[in-house]
Amino acid sequence: MRQRLMMVVLGFLVMGCGSDPVPVLGFDVPFNRDLPTGIDDPGPSDVVDRPDVVQPVDPGKDPGLDQGTDTGTLSDLGPQDPGGGDPGVLDPGGIDPGEPVDPGSPADVVECGAGDSRMVACGLNGRGEQRQICVEGRWSDFGDCTDPDICTDDDVVSQPCGLNGRGVARSICQDGAWSDQACDDPDECIDGEARTVKCGTKDAGLGDQACVVGAWEAKGGCRTPGRWQCVQRTCTPLYAAATCGNKVCEPKSGESPASCPADCGGFAGTSGEGVRCNDGFDCVFYDWPVKGYGYWECTGLLGRRCVPRASADFCGTAGQDYCYFTQYVIESDQSCPLDCPGKSLSCAADYACIYHDWPEESWVTSP
Q: How many distinct helices (H) and strands (E) make up the chain?
């Protein structure tokens, strides 16, 4: 019986060497220890090398599993492919097969060795120095950045400046430091300040100014001294007259305490009674010493002196209502304010204007 079975097996093996496929047996062929040992070892079978040979499959086992003696379960093989692939292929650990695998993460890169240190650039413009030390293979800042710069190059800042803060100073950052820029200030004075300056013809006068919104503005006119002139029968001020300032009061030439205080300003507060005179004009600017209206007379046999004459015959009377002037008899604005000064600026001579208020000059300056 055993010999018959062996003959069948050998027949199949001989047939397998041909071009026809070898039929698959549905059972295991037991090893026959009684076969004659004289049969030469046919050598390794070339069945596995032929693509057209169908290998026997045990219907009770998964063809994708090892056919050895391991009896472990599928769970022992590790994570399986969630995509439903071959259960014999292990999950590569969550790596996306569509992306290249990083051979080493940054945390694995060693930048330096233990005890190493270095200085690197830092700061606003990279001109500072920062010390770094090696900590666990990575460079780490040690201390603060020593930076000489206080600003970023080419930055521009504008700040208010000037007398009243209305100016603008623009600074540019150069080499890490703010450049000094001149203040562009439209103002010439501090708001609310006041001053008195020269003004008028030949800068002979004085005028008051106030600072308003950073600019000087005139307050009133210019007080320029001079004398009166009767021009075309009209009293006309002559500012900065050459005769004003020579220390001699000259009423007949149109000077008065108002027009030229430097020459005629010493009469106020002084009684002129008994003062020596050459004519009535030497008496007119003294204080009137008597009660009532009247006039001055320059009279005397051994030397002329100023004598006040109290009389209402001429002051303010009809037909006499004008300021009276003769060489020795003369009315003044104190002796007869009803007649002096005249009601208008009309005149016949320079002295006819001496009681008028001296007008301020408009603000002009001469070169």
A: 2, 14
